[in-house]
Design a protein that fits this description.
Keywords: Hydrolase, Magnesium, Metal-binding
Order of helices and strands: EHHEHEEEHHEEEEHEEHEHEHH
Helix content: 25-40%
Cofactor: Mg(2+)
Largest sheet: 7 strands, mixed
InterPro entries: Cof, HAD-like_sf, HAD-SF_hydro_IIB, HAD_sf
Pfam families: Hydrolase_3
Strand content: 15-25%
Organism: Chitiniphilus eburneus
Number of domains: 2
Number of helices: 10
CATH class of the largest domain: Alpha Beta
Strand order of the largest sheet: 5-4-3-2-1-12-13
CATH superfamily of the largest domain: HAD superfamily/HAD-like
Radius of gyration: 17 Å
Length: about 260
């Protein structure tokens, strides 16, 4: 019945310290030995997630930058969507970035406007790190994602401003309370998941998906068997009232639920 497992990382598959638990890695490896396919779907950068996949020890497809990039298990890029350069240039100006930590995700680089050591805590397994750059003067080419990090209240005001001025030209979502993410308007984890299902020839009815935050909404709607984490954003739970809620990531909820589903 089940052929494909799609999962978010932070708040979902990963432990609260943003690392891979051995119990989780062992669960996924056992299922891969049974012939299951995997998709890691996250707002994180491809170079970062590639390292996390290595720690997991599975041959997973990678949906990164919330669907702006898709790579196969052999690291071949099979899907890419960039923001329009003129929008990147506009959104890197202080009018929008003031009061935030601003980052740009490119194919092979993570550019940040100023050093922000706390961001590196999320990349312990991969070792991926940012490069400081003059973002207000960046040319805007080849950008998969813009990331603003600030307090939730500040980002809510920024979200309103972006939607008022650019709503039809951008996909805007939260990956965490302090992370507002901006991509091209046709980008989402759900659309990227359809790309992977097409590559594998797997129907949505054979796909399981796990998520915890607003950027997981489209993926959970796309999969035939979606599950919400016990620690999921209340707004996401309200948007998907029919989706079952499982144990939180503090209890390795994804691994526990998969072991139950597959009788491990």
């Amino acid at each position: 019945m089940y052929q494909l497992i799609a999962t978010d990382l932070d708040g979902t598959l990963l432990s609260p310290d943003h690392t891979v638990a051995p119990y989780t890695a062992d669960t996924l490896r056992q299922l891969e030995n049974r012939g299951l396919h995997f998709v890691i779907a996250t707002g994180r950068h491809y170079c970062d997630v590639r390292g996390i996949r290595d720690v997991l020890g599975i041959r997973a497809y990678l949906i990164t930058s919330n669907g702006a990039r898709v790579h196969d298990p052999d690291n071949q890029q099979i899907h890419a969507e960039n923001l329009e350069p003129h929008l990147v240039r506009a959104l890197c100006q202080p009018e929008y970035s003031h009061g935030t930590s601003l980052s740009l995700y490119l194919d092979q680089a993570w550019l940040i406007g100023a050093p922000y050591e706390r961001m590196l805590e999320y990349h312990q397994d991969s070792g991926f790190a940012y490069e400081v750059a003059d973002l207000p003067n960046y040319h805007g080419e080849d950008v998969a994602k813009i990331l603003y990090v600030a307090s939730h209240d500040h980002l809510l005001r920024l979200e309103d401003k972006l939607r008022e001025q650019y709503d039809d030209e951008l996909y805007i979502t939260f990956s965490a309370l302090d992370c507002l993410e901006v991509m091209a308007p046709t980008v989402s984890k759900g659309h990227a998941l359809t790309v992977v299902m097409g590559e594998l020839g797997v129907p949505a009815s054979a796909c399981i998906a796990f998520g915890d935050n607003l950027n997981d909404f489209e993926m959970l709607e796309t999969a035939g068997h979606p599950f919400l984490m016990g620690n999921a954003n209340p707004k996401l739970i309200a948007q998907l009232p029919q989706v079952p809620v499982i144990q939180p990531n503090t209890e390795a909820g994804v691994a526990q639920h998969l072991r139950t589903l597959f009788g491990l």
